Amino acid sequence: MTTSIRARATALALATTAAGLALPAGAAHAATTCSTGVWVASYYANTTFKGTPKKTACDTSINENYGTGDPAGVTLPKDNFGVRWNLTRDFGSGGPFTLTAAARDGIRVYLDGTRRIDLWKDVTTTRTKTLNLTIPKGRHTLRVDFAAFKGSANVKFTYAPRTSASVDKTKPLTPTGLKAPASGHAFSLAWTKGAEMDLAGYRVYRRTGTGAWARIGGGAPVTTTSFRDLPPATGAKYSYAVTSVDKAGNASAMSSAVTVTSIDEQAPPVPSGLKAAVTGDGRGYALAWSPNADTSAYQVYRATSAAGPWTLLGTAAAPSYTDAKVAPRTQYFYSVIATDAAGNISGRSAAASAAPLAIRPDAPRDVAAVPSGSVIAVKVTWSLPREQAVGSYTVYRSTTSPVDPSTATALGCAIRGEGELGGATAQFSCDDQASLQRGVTYHYAVTQTADGLESPLSGEASVTFPGDEEPPALVSGLTVVPTEYGVRLHWDPNTEPDLARYTVYRGEVYEDEEERVCLASAVEWLSPGTTEYFAERLPDGEEGCYFVDATDTSGNSLFLSERETNVVEFKELDLTPSVGTPEGSPVGLTAHAVSDGVRLGWNDVADAVGYLVYRWDRDTGRYESVTPEPVTGTAWTDTTAARGTTHFYWVRAVYADGTESLPGGGHAILTP
């Protein structure tokens, strides 16, 4: 009897220690708290459970064989003692349970204070009773009273859910507390553990957008309260929900859903159906391709070979693009890449091309016709953007308007280039001196011919020679003022009623033993009411001469009559940096004035991680940095540049190791 008692006391000590709830002997009067699902056992020296328990402890189960000894090791009588077990727990959704009691001697079982099993009798053999009942969902209390009347004593009690599918029709409780990160690549789900005693696990469901739910995670239920999912990385929104499943196969309602957004790592489809056709005006190629799914923009590339290398032309939001910057007799190949909103790019489309073009050239612009010289002659002038001046020119003259090339006279005059070299506009002229008559109005138009194609006819210019042959008076009061941004001219007004225009001439002074001569050419024609002229020029210390000549409506002028003119010599300011720009830089720099400063642009340099911009400082005599940190693009605006002067710049490419390339140089003139 003593051995049995000691063995049981040790087992109790181990169980309660594991739960952190063991009580020393002599602590019978202290309150005892046990873990969920663990019985609180109270030992009495009577079978009526009167008075204060001799001992209170925690039991993980009720399965005792006391023999004929003291069950608590606290001097209980060997007969007529009692043990009461209490347990309160959450039964989840409840359902069918089996209560099984076996005892020698008496045992009573209560559910929420209601007696369910009653075998209260002094017996000599162990009696067993099994009771099937339905326990409602939620928290409930079980109580087991045991009485050892005389002789040997033992007791056993179990309660367990009935898990047969034919018996258990109660659905488990819906899972709660489902959580997941809002966005990412992989999603770790977690939820609160359910209280079901017959829980088999959980089923995890996923759906895309508002589509149908689909179970994930395999056939068997998930036995933990977490799940990791790696959906396709398409940028789609996914929703997740969880159900509980018991051992009878009953499933709960679906939990509240959580919605997440996956990272978009899926490239859009490769564009297809690319075709290239000549545009209606015959001056470029119109590209078109099939619309692409999951695409926010298209990148259009061009090459002169189907194998590349490819150059980015531009981007398009719609599946079409027009390439108007083409050269004649050159075959181009085109390819398209699709990009989505997340920055994913497709593969390159199949290349497409069209037959090389013979491009009809542009028509000349700004055609003017003015009397020229002391004889009856006409100077015809015109211009074109320099990149459009690609052919030869034909000047047509007619005494009727509009000019009809089929009936007009094609002049054989010599074509001359006019204006200053290096500008954005190319200017041309020719002199018509072929038997012109006074009192007749002549109409002029010009065409350009390139690659065997003649341009459309330009606009017309007309001139009439009246009978007056006396030129206007000498232009007086001419002043030439060099500035940091060019040269300004001013003169006294000519008030003659037939004044047609002023002509500004610029040239260089030549001298010999007899005289000094200003060898000049016309740079501008100005209206009769004008008395000033500004020439935006690089202030590099160049010397020269200006004069202004007045021309009347009959084409008469002092200069063209080879008479006296009022010549003013000048020397430009010289702002040229004292430090020269070295040759061999990989950076090709351009600079021009804009409304808020100077706009700089340069080419992309291989392996460069950025670019540093320097501006010449006349005070320090060196190029000073105006971008403390490297610029990552290929353009930058200097908004700190002062107006009314000329600015000189360097741009250096910066490499990953911190070294810089040789500088590319450029300048921009900012007028006041």
Gyration radius, in Å = 52 Å
Number of E-type strands: 47
Share of helix, binned: under 10%
- In the residues, how many domains can be counted? 6
**CATH level-four homologous superfamily name of the largest domain:** Galactose-binding domain-like
The shape is elongated
CATH-defined architecture of the largest domain? Sandwich
CATH topology of the largest domain: Jelly Rolls
> What would CATH call the class of the largest domain?
Mainly Beta
Given the structure, what is the number of helices?
Answer: 1
Q: Which stretches of 5+ consecutive residues score pLDDT under 50? A: 1-30
Q: Overall mean pLDDT score?
A: 89
Estimate what percentage of residues fall within beta strands: 35-45%
The major beta sheet can be summarized as: 6 strands, antiparallel
Pairing-aware structural class of the strands and helices? mainly beta
